[in-house]
Design brief:
By secondary structure, the protein is of the alpha/beta class. The chain has two domains: about 180 residues, Rossmann fold (3-Layer(aba) Sandwich); about 110 residues, Homeodomain-like (Arc Repressor Mutant, subunit A), CATH 1.10.10. The protein is built from 14 helices and eleven strands.
């Protein structure tokens, strides 16, 4: 069996979870398939680095002493804002030799700075996508997915999305059953599809400043099955429909209808993940009315039907042993 070298790039100011999340996934694969991955870390000069949370990490070796790995993993963090030019030069020269280039969160900015994402599809943390697109117009930035695969390049959104991407890579290398067993062992309830949106409706929208609009936002979240038309929501906020729609968009950054769509989809996903309820029951509970309406919403946003979503991403099989 081929042993795949995983090389993790370390630098001052990296986000520790961007590193440890994916590394735990690859290490979990080694419990299921001994020797599947050789995981090493490297900094520019081989010296310790300090993470954004204050942890000190000691790498295995210096980047200059590494051979081209199978998978090169570049984490994100505050250190990507003003990277060492030597790191960018190393990435520009050596990263193309890796069979697979992977970034977590703002690590994509380092790959882009090195010119490795020009003409390619990529994502990063949703808060950075606008700046990312402005700084690197040659990159096709996709702000919604939790990770994006484009040939030998794979980029992911913030923090925990790196775990989802690593699980997808393990599935690609070693099979679905092992990837799902690792997810179960790490208490990652669901291995999410890459095209799943990377933020919830509540995070995607701003919190309204005015109390009546905030109350409406909360009501929508708690009652996805209710009448959530503009007229009904406006009445709850004690505003005219026109005034409500205008104020809601100004204060939250999206229309009431789009917010409702996101909340209902999120509620339906949770029902499919957390319960054994039938598709029709989930559709009613989450305000879709009919299973077909829910199916269209899932296909439009997630690229899979509700039944396929549940089937593909439920954990299965025994947990991976720890020893």
């Amino acid at each position: 069996m081929e042993q795949r070298d995983v090389l993790v790039v370390l630098f001052d100011g990296l986000q520790s979870l961007d590193l440890t999340g994916p590394v735990e996934v690859f290490a979990g694969a080694n419990h299921g398939v001994p020797g599947a991955y050789r995981i090493r870390t490297a900094s520019l000069d081989g010296g310790p680095v300090r993470t954004s949370s204050g942890l000190t990490l000691t790498p295995d070796l210096a980047l200059t002493d590494t051979a081209p790995p199978h998978t090169l993993l570049v984490p994100g963090g505050e250190g990507t804002c003003h990277p060492d030019p030597r790191l960018i030069d190393w990435l520009r020269t050596h990263a193309p030799r890796a069979r697979r280039k992977v970034s977590v969160c703002s690590g994509a900015l380092l790959l882009a700075e090195a010119g490795l994402l020009d003409g390619r599809r990529a994502t990063t943390h949703w808060m950075l996508c606008g700046t990312f697109a402005e700084r690197f117009p040659a990159v096709h930035v996709e702000p919604e997915p939790i990770y994006v695969r484009d040939g030998d390049l794979a980029t992911s959104a913030g923090v925990t999305a790196g775990i989802d991407l690593a699980l997808a890579l393990v599935e690609e290398d070693l099979g679905r059953d092992l990837a799902l067993a690792i997810a179960r062992h790490l208490v990652v309830f669901l291995r999410r599809p890459g095209n799943q949106t990377q933020f919830s409706a509540q995070l995607a929208a701003q919190t309204a400043q005015r109390r009546p609009l905030r109350d409406v936002q909360q009501w929508i979240t708690e009652n996805p099955e209710a009448d959530l038309s503009v007229d009904a929501l406006a009445a709850r906020a004690r505003l005219s429909p026109r005034h409500f729609a205008r104020a809601f968009r100004e204060e939250t950054g999206m229309t009431p209808g789009r917010y409702v769509d996101r909340v209902r989809l999120e509620a339906a996903r949770r029902c499919l993940e957390d319960t054994a309820d039938g598709i029709e029951q989930v559709a009613r509970r989450c305000g879709y009315g009919t299973p077909e309406a829910m199916r269209r919403a899932f296909l439009r946003v997630l690229g899979s039907s509700p039944a396929e979503y549940r089937r593909r991403f439920q954990p299965a099989g025994p947990p991976v042993p720890t020893a």
